[in-house]
Amino acid sequence: MTPSSQKLRTPRKTSFLRNGRRCPVSSPSAATCPHGPHTPVARPFCIIESPVQMTAGSEQAHQREKIRALEPLKAKLVTVNEDCNERILAMRAEERYEISMLKKEKMNLLKLIDKKNEEKISLQTEVTKLRKKLAEEYLHYLTERDARKILIADLNELRYQREDMSLAQSPGIWGEDPVKLTLALKMTRQDLTRTQMELNTMKANFGDVVPRRDFEMQEKTNRDLQEQLDSLRDDYEEVRKEHEILLQLHMSTLKERDQFYSELQEIQRTSTPRPDWTKCEDVVSGGPDRWHMLAEGKNSDQLVDVLLEEIGEGLLREKDFFPGLGYGEAIPPFLRFDGIVENKKPTKKDVVNLLKDAWKERLAEEQKEKFPDFFFNFLERRFGPGDAMAWAYTIFENIKLFRSNEVMSQFYAVLMGKRSEIVYIKHKETVAQLLKEMTNVDSQNEGLLTMEQLSTVLKSIFPFKKEEKIQELMEAGGWHPNSSNADFLNYRSLFMEDEEGQSMHFVQKLWEQYMDEKDEYLQELKQELGLELRDEVTLCKVREALMNIDPGLDKQTLNSYLSQAFQLPVTELPEEGEKEEGIVTRLQAALEQLQMADIRRMGAREHEPAS
């Protein structure tokens, strides 16, 4: 803008009245006006673009840009609002449907109550009619009784007149003694009077008595009606109680619905989404096929363990050396070493085969030594003294990592003293015995058994298992509800193992049932003792509790359980009743020691028959 354009234009004079209004006919040169004296005012006219206007323009442009930027957010807000409105409408529709269903149910109950009331009224009406009919019958019988009395009296009078006439007309009567006849007539009249009095007494005493047959009939009818009335009253009371229960149930359902809705809102607000496990397909080595094989039949917690094992396996293979743990007391004997040891990097299959060989040598060993010492000696014999420590660290890291592997997890538990090796040995003996029994039943040696034969073998090997446990084992073996007892099963496939030592589902279910039954057995023992875990328990109480929950325990097995619980040799255990009160331990410690050992039920429960 040029400086000349910023100059004020020539002011234009305008006449205004004294009160501030502009005169419509005045001009700057007018001296007088009918509207009154004028006050000339000069009004400048200019075109100035001040900095304030420039700032306001830029601010408006900025605001327009901001509005354009917020337009997508507005559309998203409208979309979210519509979704929320649709959810609210859906929930209201569901509530209206529930309310309508409850109203229909209420109307049905009201109709049922009205029907019962109508039946009650009809029965009362019928009882009233029967009572009225009974009264009419009673009056009818009274009238008939009076008529019979009058008729009998008339008949007696006629009979007397006839006898008098016959006596008067009979020629032989005059030959009798008149005194005798008079006396006979007198006595006869006295008898008649006495008889008449007895008859009147009987009528007075039993005039209101009805016949027994009619009375019994009316009594039976009255009893039936009373039973029907009582039945209707009971039905009505039952319907009324059911109606009250339904009302209470309706109220509690409404409260639960509101509570669940609140919990749903809270969960939707605070919960995190479930992980998408399909993302692991591209990360795990082997691709989607191997991941599907690893994830089959596992829950989220187990999938986390599998994923950690896969990650740990990769990290373990990247390590070339392990740092030694030293010679501390807390360090297992086979890991006591200073310095670094080499990571031999075996495959899982190699580790499993090595552990199986160790178990075979352990079972064939005559002079039993401690399991950690045996393990290190086995490695020395297998790989030599120079590589034994490296293999000990390598195998230890592998079995500590792969907890989902059956062979590794069981060997780790025995090696670290968390489980007795007799548990593993007994389990393998049970599996071998089961296979042997099935082979004996298979007389044709075809490797096939019927479902009925499988059930018989399971019940003979496990006589104290519950029926549902036997059913679970049969389902794990391939039985399903649609199967018939004649269907064949390849029983040898139940005992096969994959290249990593994993057993089939049947053997795994057998191990799971053993662990569950052990936990149940120890829980029954704790309940029988009635003590807290921190309380102390004596050997006498434990002995008595074991005999109560398992009456089939023999003395040798009972002593082995007590020896394990109190960590005493069997030879040092006192006989029953001999200084048992002095041997005490904490209940938690006793249960932990029994959990490590091979504990199983030796007899059927008292309230349950054996399968």
Automatic annotation (TrEMBL):
The keyword Coiled coil applies. Residues 1-36 are annotated as: Disordered. It comes from the Eukaryota. Keywords: Coiled coil. Residues 99-133, 215-249 form a coiled coil. This is Translin-associated factor X-interacting protein 1 isoform X3. It comes from Equus przewalskii (Przewalski's horse). The gene is TSNAXIP1.
